[in-house]
Amino acid sequence: MRKFVEGPVDRLQCDIHRYSKGMSRVRWPSLGGMGHDIWFTCTLRHTAGLFNITSFLRVTPATTMSAHQPDFFSWLTIGVKEKISASAVMVLMTRSPSVRVGLQKETTLHCQFAVDHKVPHLTVEWHFQRRGGRRTKLFSYSSRSGQTEGSGVAVKGIAGGDASLTVPITKVSSEGTYVCSVRVPPLNGSVDIALHIIEPPDVSLTTKEEQIPSVVCEANGFYPLDVEIDLFKETSSGQRPEKLGNILRSSHLQHHDNTHSVAAFVRLRPSPQDSGCAIYSCRVSHVSLQGLYIHKSIIGPGEIDQSINQSIQCIKPYTSAPVTK
Predict the structure, then answer these.
(1) Would you say 190 and 181 are in contact if contact means Cβ atoms under 8 Å apart?
(2) Which residues form the Ig-like domain (predicted)?
(3) Cα separation of 91 and 119, whole Å?
(4) Cα–Cα distances in Å, from 132 out to 176, 177, 297?
(5) How far apart are the first and last CA of the chain?
(6) Any bridge partners for residue 204, and if so which?
(7) Is the dihedral angle over the CA atoms 116, 122, 123, 124 positive or is it negative?
(8) Over the stretch 124-142, which tens digit does the pLDDT of each residue have?
(9) Dihedral sign, CA of 218, 219, 221, 224?
(10) 141 with 158: CB under 8 angstroms?
């Protein structure tokens, strides 16, 4: 398994479990495989989400166990009476256990496997499951029959252990869990890949000239819900902006592509202390910005100077408040 690991080993989590083939006595087809082999799975997960690796370990006991003996009894008996060693015979891994991608993009979900003997009889399948929905099959391939169903996987790559799936033109409906399964009888392994659709907002800041002027900050086309919008006012150069508290919000608007839009606005009532123009700004944070925020500023009443009524966009480290999930 070590050759598949990247990065320092102190970032790894390791789990070892018994793997039950049920009542099957199918012999592993490589040299030394026996019908009474005892099986384990060893899973390595990188704590930063760089990869998941599962290896199937085969142990051949000197004593043949009855098919009706419980797994824990067989293992305790072997552990007490014999010096054992395990062989890793099949490895299944992904370098994309969790993927964040925007809309209208193409993304590849990595799935790789290795088997200890040449030309194994194997089946590769991909399934997709939305949260709370039914599981649907996206792709299947059988080396025994040569038949292929579905698309997204390069069949030529399977012979070299590459079963990666390409998801074309992502939509909100593409979000969910993708399962890559590889079966080499009697073993059946799978890796889960979570695909998250993350689309940042398009932010605009404008003024509306009415009986009571207002400043409107709009966040358009974002996914998922929700955004945090703050409005500020600065009346003199060098003064710390004042966060406005009388902010009103519109209802969320859902678009045909399932993205959302919302507006926050404040009605302007310049005080006698205001002279000339004030600088109004809005700050929008969203999970897609990963701890950053979008900041826009505009000149507004006091007296609106139409010659400078332009938006300015920049991205700065978001340190004043946590991002609202």
Answers:
(1) yes
(2) 87-192
(3) 15
(4) 10, 11, 42
(5) 37
(6) 218
(7) positive
(8) 999 999 987 889 999 999 9
(9) negative
(10) yes
Phi, psi values for residue 288, rounded to 5°:
-65, -20
Contact by Cβ (8 Å): 137, 150: yes
The DSSP annotation for 176-192 comes to EEEEEEEEETTEEEEEE
Give the pLDDT of residue 322.
32
- pLDDT tens by residue, 251-265: 999 999 999 999 999
DSSP, collapsed to helix, strand or coil, labels residue 126 as strand
The whole-angstrom separation of Cα 233 and Cα 311 is 15
List, in sequence order, the alpha helices (H) in the chain.
71-81, 155-158
d(CA 207, CA 266): 10
Query: Measured between alpha carbons, how far is 320 from 323 in angstroms, rounded to an integer?
Result: 10
Question: Are the CB atoms for 42 and 16 separated by under 8 Å?
Answer: yes
Would strands 52-59 and 38-46 be described as parallel, antiparallel, or unpaired?
A: antiparallel
pLDDT of residue 297: 85
The DSSP bridge pattern shows strands 107-109 and 98-101 to be: unpaired
Residue 236 has a pLDDT of: 66
In degrees and rounded to multiples of 5, residue 267 shows phi and psi of -85, 135
Mean pLDDT of the chain: 81
Record the tokens describing residue 255, joined without a space.
């678009």
One-letter identity of residue 185: P
In whole angstroms, give the CA distance from residue 113 to residue 180: 10
Instruction: Look at strands 277-285 and 292-301 and give their pairing.
Output: antiparallel
What is the spatial distance between Cα 91 and Cα 56, in angstroms, rounded to a whole number?
A: 6
- The letter for the amino acid at 272 is P
Q: How far apart are CA 112 and CA 317, in angstroms?
A: 37
Residue ranges of the chain with per-residue pLDDT less than 70: 21-25, 62-85, 236-238, 269-277, 300-325
User: What confidence tens digit (pLDDT) does each residue in 31-69 have?
Assistant: 777 777 888 999 999 988 899 999 999 888 765 555 445
Looking at residue 241, its pLDDT comes to 83
Instruction: Answer for the pair 113, 90: CB distance below 8 angstroms, yes or no.
Output: yes
According to the model, what pLDDT value does residue 24 have? 61
